[in-house]
Amino acid sequence: MELSPETIKSIWDQAIVLAYLIVPTLVYAFLFYLVGRFIVNKLINGFSRLLDARDSNPSLNSFLVGLVKAVLYVSLFIGIATILGVPMSSFLAILGAAGLAIGLALQGSLSNFAGGVLILLFKPFKVGDVIEGQGQIGTVKKIDILYTHLHTGDNREVVIPNGNLANSEVVNMTAQPTRRVEIKVGVAYNTDLKKAREVILSILNQDERVHSEPAPAVFLNNFGDSSLDLVVRAWVNTGDLWPVYFESMEKIKSAFDRNEIEIPFPQRVIYSKSE
Fold first, then answer.
1. Which residues, 6+ apart, have CB-to-CB distance to 87 below 8 Å?
2. What is the Cα–Cα distance from 206 to 231, expressed in whole angstroms?
3. CATH number at residue 152
4. Which structural domain, as residue segments, surrounds residue 160?
5. Would residue 273 count as lying in a domain?
6. Around 135, how many Cα atoms within 13 Å sit in the side-chain half-sphere?
7. Is the pLDDT of residue 76 over 60?
8. Closest C-alpha among 124, 155, 129 to residue 140
9. Can you give the pLDDT at residue 56?
10. Is the pTM of this model over 0.85?
């Protein structure tokens, strides 16, 4: 089909008019993008330096920088879409539908994400702490936005979802600078309790790691089936708890042997009634 000169001229005139309408808008949108990207990068870098200066949690810093970056870039592209004449109602409806679909697909991950935010913000524990949670005991090696990594005493790495940790009981064993050592030991019923107490306290008082205030103490805790049960309590620095515990157990056993203080075996008394 051959176009007439009049038709070609009409199409060309319409193309010129359309170019006058579209090209300035495209140029304006492109310039808006360049300036906006420059401003966004400056804001992100400034925010990142501010967080680093506060010396807060690196994982939290990374998350906050990523969140601010996402919000700023979404705002930038919404501005560009507005310049290009995209209806905001349609754009927001698409974003809402996409957000709903993503939320339904990632319910478990979103729970872990929320738990990670709570842990990083309220800091019930930090990297380097020894915690007990979800049936595991270990040193916190890394706190991600979704998972917490523990290093156990037998050299295992345990990865626990943050959603579970944030919604259950967590025991932080190193949050306080001092802890109380508690040792339970049984002695025979014919034991001189005063002497046994003096032997135990002598061991604790000679240990420089044991604090003098609060002072170590030994109490009669229970009348057991086969023994008088004593409880030994002493305060130490948190890092010294287990060394003091294990060494004191051995020293108490050796001291009891030297002083002829009996640690009894389980026993029963049987009465025989003759007819």
1. none
2. 19
3. 2.30.30.60
4. 124-172
5. no
6. 0
7. yes
8. 129
9. 61
10. no
What are all long-range contacts of 244-247, with beta carbons under 8 Å and residues at least 24 apart?
244/181, 244/207, 244/209, 244/210, 245/181, 245/183, 247/207
- 40-74 pLDDT tens trace: 888 888 888 887 777 566 666 776 777 788 788 88
Total domains, the chain: 3
Q: What is the CATH number of the domain that holds 186?
A: 3.30.70.100
Burial class (CB in 10 A: 0-12, 13-18, 19+), 208: exposed
**Mean pLDDT within 132-139:** 92
Looking at the fold, whether 100 and 13 belong to one and the same domain comes out as yes
Asked if residue 209 lies in contact with residue 240, where contact means CB atoms within 8 angstroms, the answer is: yes
CA-CA-CA-CA torsion sign (153, 157, 158, 163): positive
Report how far residue 217's alpha carbon sits from residue 33's, in angstroms, rounded to the nearest whole number.
72
Total residues found in the chain within this entry? 275
